[in-house]
Amino acid sequence: MSDVMIRVPSEVRDQLAAVAEARGTSLRALMQEIAAQTLTPEQIKARADRTRALLAERFGHYVTDEESAEMRRKMSEAAAARRAALADAESSR
Predict the structure, then answer these.
(1) Among 24, 23, 27, residue whose Cα is nearest residue 12
(2) Angstrom distance (rounded) from CA 45 to CA 78
(3) Could you tell me which of 40, 38, 16, 11 has the C-alpha nearest to residue 28?
C-alpha cells in the first residue's frame, strides 16, 4: 500500500481528526471509509441504470429523464435543508 499526502486547511485536518477520535479509529481508517462510501460519477450512473432496470422489470415503471431530474432536485433541496439545520443547531450551542 502506498501513502499519499493530501493538503487541507488545518481546520479540516482538525475536524477529521476529531471525527476519527470520536469513532475510535485512525485518520487513515477514516479516510479509507470515506473513500469506500463515496461513489464516482460512473458508479452513480451504473447504480441509477440498475435501479431504472429494476423498476421497469419488477413494477413496469419506466423512469423518465424528467422524473430523475425532479428527484435529484428534491434530494438536493433536502440535503441543503439538513445542512442548514445542522449549521443552525451548531451555531446555537
Answers:
(1) 27
(2) 21
(3) 16
Residue 86 grid cell = 445542522
Check if the beta carbon of residue 29 is closer than 8 Å to that of residue 19.
no
From first to last of its 93 residues, the chain has per-residue pLDDT tens of 788 889 999 999 999 999 999 999 999 999 999 999 999 999 999 999 999 999 999 999 999 989 989 999 999 999 999 999 999 988 888
Q: Give the separation between CA 74 and CA 50, rounded to whole angstroms.
A: 21
Separation between Cα atoms, residue 40 and residue 63, nearest integer Å: 22
List all residues 6 or more positions away from 20 whose beta carbon is below 8 Å from its beta carbon.
26, 27, 29, 30
pTM (two decimals): 0.57
Distance CA 78, CA 67 (A): 16
Residues 5 and 13: their CA atoms lie apart, in Å, by: 12
How confident is the model at residue 47, as a pLDDT?
A: 93
